[in-house]
Amino acid sequence: MMVSHFTFKTSTHPSRSDRCKTRPSLGACARRACQGAVCRRSVLKAFGAGRMEEELKCPVCGSLFKEPLLLPCSHNVCLVCARSISVHTPDGEPAGAVQQSRASAASSDYDYLDVDKMSLYSETDSGYGSYTPCQLKSPNGVRVFPAPQHPHHQQRLCSLTCPLCHRSVSLDERGLRGLPRNRLLEAIVARYRQNRAATASAASGAAKCQLCDRNPVDAAVMCEQCDVFYCNACQQRCHPSRGPLAKHRLVPPPQQRPGQAASGAGAGQPPATARKPATCVEHEAENFVMYCCNCRAPVCAKCAEEGRHAKHDVKPIALMWKQHKCQLSQALNGVSDKAKDAKEFLVQLKNMLQQIQENGVEFEACLVAQCDSLIEALTRQKAKLLTKVTKEKEYKLKMARDQITHCTMKLRQTTGMMEYCLEVLKENDPSGFLQISDALIKRVASSQDQWVKGNLEAKVGPDFQLTLNTDALLQSILQLDFCQGKAESGPSVPAAPLLQLEKCCSGNNSATLAWRVAVPQGAPIEGYILELDDGNGGQYREVYVGKETVCTVDGLHFNSSYNTRVKAYNAVGVGPYSKTVVLKTSDVACFAFDPTSAHRDIVLSNENQTVSCNSYDDRVVLGTAAFSKGTHYWEVRIDRYDNHPDPAFGIARINTVKDMMLGKDDKAWAMYVDNNRSWFMHNNSHTNRAEGGITKGATVGILLDLTKRTLTFFINKEQHGPTAFENLDGVFVPAVSLNRNVQVTLVTGLEVPRVLKQ
Questions:
Q1: What single string gives the DSSP state of each residue in 80-97?
Q2: For residue 621, what are the β-bridge partners?
Q3: Among residues 674, 601, 617, which one has the least CA distance to residue 642?
Q4: Alpha carbon distance 430, 432 (integer Å)
Q5: Could you report the per-residue pLDDT of 68-124, keeping only the tens digit for each?
Q6: Per-residue model confidence (pLDDT) at position 126
Q7: Distance of CA 158 to CAs 96, 120, 150, Å?
Q8: Which of 211, 263, 261 lies closest to 236 in space, CA to CA?
């Protein structure tokens, strides 16, 4: 519990000479008071004096003070309100008992848990005691206790709690009569009432009801708490004298109050009546002539000579009156300076409103221009993409039309030959038939070879193999936001990284890049974004996002040049790109067999270049390289060949079936060969039987031309059969299928041979 202590220092009477020495210069005080008058008047003129009304209202009832009493804490309450908030304690009962019982009864409504609590009688000399919580509420929101009515007569003590600072004052046997009456405040309230009434009378002659919708009638009453004029009908409807409004004070309008001057030429401010001099509370016949510096209160001559102020430091009241006026004037000068600064600050805020409006319009225009430039760039890029789609569409249409023309011509020739042969079959002359039958049989066989499955497949498909990935761009647009603060102040985005060319290299179909940041600025770097184009000068795409400064990108196209760039980002945003570096991949592919995707019966050796099998059934093994563009050639050398098996060589998708011969599903294109002949096979369809096989030491070459989209096979450096497959499109990997009777070795990095036959 916090306890506030108030101690007053006592001293003996000073001598008259000492009093004269401490007397301030009244002329200097007057001059200082006059110097600040102009400043105070300007401030009051700027902000109006009508706001003083809040200083003249009682904190309990909310009305203008009536017979105000001055509490020791320098706050004021009306006499009637002081009676309503006083607390009576029977003699012999502890002072805290009544307070604790009432506090427990109002525990659910207790609003002052953090107020310092003091014993009621701990500081009786200073007149302060403990705060007592209240159960009722006044119209101004202050909780009060009504004075209890005891049925039996006994000696009672009384305490009063200030409704503003919540400190209690102990009253003696005189009760509220022991508190001084604030006559100065009472006089100011009287003048304020007169000025307000005169202003209202001069403005409208008669106050009108403020709640009537049309044709307001004369007001009958005015609520001092609401400060609103009501006619009788509106008062009954909007301000009934019940519920929370029961304690509001309704008074007649100012111009109708008794004793007020009527309207006319002489209706001005009523003459101020002379106030009766204030008298001592203990000696009612004595006027205040001295001021006690210890108690900080005016006293009469008897109190200063014989009463409890006899040993206190007392001075003439006129001297202290002027001295305190001088101090108040000086304090007002300081407040006036602060008010003047506040007035200038308000002017700055109002000017800022205009600046905010202008800057907002300018910033909106800049934002619109930036967004329009983005839209324009997107429109240009859309036009480029539409051009590519148009070219692809025209290419597909041309290929389809050419194939239709070629197929129609062949079909016409075949139909004519068939009709001729049917006519020949009708002839009954054996010798004549045998003269031309050999030639017709060869023509029919040749015509049959022209209608192989490859010629009956479309060279182009209806689907467009073009993919536009807009996810990253859409994500960037959705993350587009403002950065707080100006660009030139505070943390900034990272600078452009520097690519370390001595560490950047490319090999086979992979590329390694390294970079660094010269001097980190602003917020720390959170990561980097590496971008590559498609190897053909197309759109960039993100291939790495992370904190490392070295990155290797695999799976690139052979014999291609890639443009690479990198940028850094931090909490502020993304920085600019580095300079672009061009990296070229290998012209020819060097690869091996892939142990991770091979069938479990496959056995790899010689650094995964040689493959054999433990099963009598055919098993598939794939290469480590993948091709989607360019021309590529590799060979397979036959190291062991027993019992005339038929291994298969060719290409496949990564997800081809690996427990049967290559080419039996639709994801592989192969040539299977034995010691005498070979066939091409795809999707379990056998075509183009060719004479000639393999033995131990022979080589099988595979030529994949993705520019022409064809696959051709070689045996011992010679082209074997016609072009095996056409219209290949997508990503392919080298593939071999074999059983335990065969062992082969992969040979890569070879020059592309010349195709002899089509």
A1: HHHHHHEEEEETTS-HHH
A2: 736
A3: 674
A4: 6
A5: 988 888 889 998 888 888 776 655 444 444 444 444 433 333 333 333 333 333 333
A6: 37
A7: 13, 10, 13
A8: 211
Token couple for 645: 């098996």
Strand pairing report for 250-251 and 290-292: unpaired
User: Of 746, 741, 734, nearest to 613 (Cα)?
Assistant: 741
Number of H helices, E strands in the chain: 11, 34
Q: And the tokens for 494?
A: 């990272």
Q: Which of these, 185, 207, 217, lies nearest to 251 by C-alpha position?
A: 207
Separation in Å, CA 728 to CA 457, 487, 653, 682: 11, 53, 11, 12
Amino acid 291: pLDDT: 87
Residues near 97 by beta carbon (within 8 Å), at least 6 away in sequence:
none
Q: How far apart are CA 594 and CA 607, in angstroms?
A: 10
Q: How high is the pLDDT of residue 90?
A: 55
CA–CA separation, 170 vs 147, rounded Å?
15
Global pTM reads: 0.37
Q: What is the DSSP letter of 219?
A: P
- What span, in angstroms and rounded, lies between the C-alpha atoms of 87 and 148? 8
Looking at 231-352, which runs of residues are DSSP E strands? 250-251, 290-292, 297-299, 314-316
Those residues with Cβ within 8 angstroms of residue 698's Cβ, 6 or more apart along the chain or in another chain: 637, 638, 641, 715, 716
Distance CA 259, CA 756 (A): 131
CA distance 59 to 225: 11
Tracing tokens 């403020």 back to the chain, one arrives at 210
- Token pair, residue 532, equals 């590559």
In eight-state DSSP terms, residue 556 is: P
Question: Which residues, at least 6 apart from 389, have a Cβ–Cβ distance to it below 8 Å?
Answer: 464, 466
Which residue has 């017979």 as its token pair?
A: 67
Using one digit for the tens of pLDDT, what is the confidence trace for 520-575?
Answer: 566 788 899 999 988 777 889 999 999 999 999 887 888 788 899 999 988 888 88
Tell me phi and psi for residue 718, to 5 degrees: -110, 140
CA–CA gap between residue 529 and residue 497 (Å, rounded): 10
Nearest to 61 by CA among 140, 166, 162, 134: 140
- CA–CA gap between residue 316 and residue 183 (Å, rounded): 20
Q: Give the list of residues 6+ apart from residue 307 with CB closer than 8 angstroms, or none.
A: 282, 283, 299
Q: For residue 350, what are its two tokens? A: 């109002």
Residue type (1 letter), 477? I
Question: CA 468 → CA 386, 579, 597, distances in Å?
Answer: 11, 25, 30
User: Going edge to edge, which strands form the sheet with 297-299?
Assistant: 297-299, 290-292, 314-316
- Dig out the tokens for 100 from the structure: 């604790």
Q: What distance in Å separates the CA atoms of residue 134 and residue 407, rounded to the nearest whole number? A: 107
Question: Residue 599 phi/psi, 5° resolution?
Answer: -65, 155
Tell me the C-alpha distance between 591 and 568, whole Å: 34
Alpha helices in 426-459 (DSSP H): 430-450
| Inter-axis angle of helices 317-425 and 26-35, nearest 10 | 30
CA distance 304 to 453: 133
Residue ranges in the chain whose pLDDT is less than 50? 1-27, 29-30, 33-35, 38-39, 43, 45-49, 92-155, 256-272, 757-758
